[in-house]
Automatic annotation (TrEMBL):
It holds the Pfam family PDH_N. It comes from Propionicimonas paludicola. InterPro entries: 6-PGluconate_DH-like_C_sf (IPR008927), ACT-like_dom_sf (IPR045865), ACT_dom (IPR002912), NAD(P)-bd_dom_sf (IPR036291), PDH_C (IPR046825), PDH_N (IPR046826), Preph/Arog_dehydrog (IPR050812), Prephen_DH (IPR003099). Pathway: Amino-acid biosynthesis; L-tyrosine biosynthesis; (4-hydroxyphenyl)pyruvate from prephenate (NAD(+) route): step 1/1. It is an enzyme of class 1 (oxidoreductase). Belongs to the prephenate/arogenate dehydrogenase family. It catalyses: prephenate + NAD(+) = 3-(4-hydroxyphenyl)pyruvate + CO2 + NADH. GO terms for molecular function: NAD+ binding; prephenate dehydrogenase (NAD+) activity; prephenate dehydrogenase (NADP+) activity. This is Prephenate dehydrogenase. Its EC number is 1.3.1.12. It comes from the Bacteria.
Length: 360
């Protein structure tokens, strides 16, 4: 149950993020009403247990979560503030400053509005891709403004907590500068890399391994949504793009100097180590144990049961699929001290352990 009363809540925009919030709130016992410009999206989300499409009594509503594309945010937030007179209104948009500026120009009293942004999502869209676990242990940025009421900030903090996220509070402009660096520039780099594959012959693409898939996953996102995100934060993104262009130019210009390449590779490694690890703690060096799994129903469940029986804590995991054979590989990341023990237990349980390697 919720520490603060957020019930009943309304979620407007029931795609990936909105429906995921709705699932998480419903699971926490909050009564959730779903609204979407495409009624079928709200119906699909409701049929999967995210809430109800029955309308809420507007005066009873305590919380409204707006999860529509960036261009529509300011209008929908302003409408929600007018329609639900007692509710705290938040949004989950990827950019905060431009939305706040538009609202300041159109809404007299913004005290019940507090922006927010869960740093979790995927390259997919729509209610079928939603899940209640999306935000667990992920960062949820809360961006109060100078006239946000304290109770509204507490409501949004409670929302993030009910979704299982770690809260970070900062101003809208600071948020936008940060996400240009950690989300929007990475997105564009992934897009440029994936775009370059359109000139690579198919026979070469067959050689692609997990590395290329890691680098290009987010380029598979909805171009329309991302056009709106980048447009809404264009000044900060352009600053980052220019810095990266200068770094790329310096590498190209001095490419025959082995020290320049060595420095670039080392800097990349330093960058990966600077990233916080699980639960926001500093990055840990895990070891990877890679186990082959047949592509059959129940194989993963029985593998997880054997890992649990071995008593080893999984820190992270990923699955890679063989393009030719009907198998996949589950790479389980564990502390270096547990890797030998896990590899031995897996082998004893009849699994094929392909690799056991320390990870930088
Ligand atoms: N995709 C991500 O990884 C991610 C992560 C965090 C935040 N966000 C932000 O969340 C918001 C939603 O993104 P998403 O990925 O869930 O997209 P989505 O396309 O899955 O969902 C958007 C939903 O909003 C509905 N919609 C559009 N205009 C509307 C309107 N005027 N009124 C009511 N409903 C409307 C659409 O029909 C759709 O169901 C965006 O602002 C995005 O910046 C996205
Ligand atoms: O695709 C993912 O894994 C994401 O988490 C997407 C991601 C991100 O860049 O971190 C993308 C945009 C959102 O505003 C928040 C999250």
């Amino acid at each position: 149950m919720s520490e603060r009363e957020l019930s009943p809540a309304v979620v407007i925009g029931t795609g990936l993020v909105g429906a995921s919030v709705a699932h998480a709130l419903s699971r926490a016992g909050v009564e959730v009403h779903l609204i979407d410009q495409a009624p079928s999206h709200a119906q699909v989300a409701a049929s999967r247990g995210a809430g109800t499409v029955d309308p809420a009594d507007p005066v009873q509503v305590r919380l409204v979560v707006v999860a529509v594309p960036p261009k529509a945010l300011a209008t929908v937030i302003a409408d929600a503030l007018a329609t639900y007179p007692q509710a705290t209104v938040t949004d989950v948009g990827s950019v905060k400053g431009t939305v706040l500026a538009t609202l300041r120009g159109s809404v007299a009293d913004l005290s019940r509005y507090v922006g927010s942004h869960p740093m979790a999502g995927s390259q997919r869209v729509g209610p079928l891709t939603a899940n209640a676990e999306l935000f667990i242990d992920r960062t949820w940025v809360i961006t109060p403004h100078d006239t946000s009421a304290a109770h509204a900030v507490l409501d949004v903090q409670e929302l993030a907590s009910l979704c299982g996220a770690r809260r970070v509070t900062m101003g809208a402009a600071h948020h936008d500068e940060a996400v240009a660096q950690v989300s929007h520039l990475p997105h564009l780099v992934s897009v440029l890399m994936a775009g370059s594959l359109t000139r690579v012959p198919a026979e070469h693409l067959r050689l692609a391994g997990q590395g290329l898939r890691d680098v290009t996953r987010i380029a598979g996102s909805d171009p329309q949504l991302w056009r709106q995100i980048i447009d809404a934060n264009s000044t900060a993104v352009l600053t980052e793009l220019r810095l990266l262009r200068d770094e790329l130019s310096a590498l190209v210009d001095d490419f025959d100097n082995p020290d320049v390449l060595a420095a670039a590779l080392q800097r990349g490694l330093d960058g990966t180590r600077a990233l916080p690890g699980k639960h926001g703690l500093s990055a840990t060096n895990y070891a990877r144990v890679v186990v082959e799994i047949p592509d059959t129903p129940g194989a993963l469940a029985s593998l997880f049961a054997d890992i649990q029986a071995a008593g080893v804590n999984i820190e992270d995991l990923s699955i890679d699929h063989d393009l030719e054979r009907e198998v996949g590989w589950l790479a389980v990341q564990v502390t270096p001290q547990s890797a030998d023990e896990l590899a031995a237990a897996m082998t004893a349980a009849g699994w094929v352990v392909r690799d056991r390697e320390p990870q930088a």
